Amino acid sequence: MKEKWSILDALRHSWHDWLNKIQLIKGNLALNKIERVHEIIEEIVRDMQHETKLTNLGAKQFAELLMTYNWEAKKISISYEVLGDGCDLSAHDSELTEWCRAFLQVMEQQADMNRESHLEISIEAFDAEVRLFFDYSGTISDENAFMEWLNTHERGASLCLEQFSIHKDEMTVAIKIARKHQG
Question: What is the DSSP letter of 153?
Answer without folding.
Answer: T
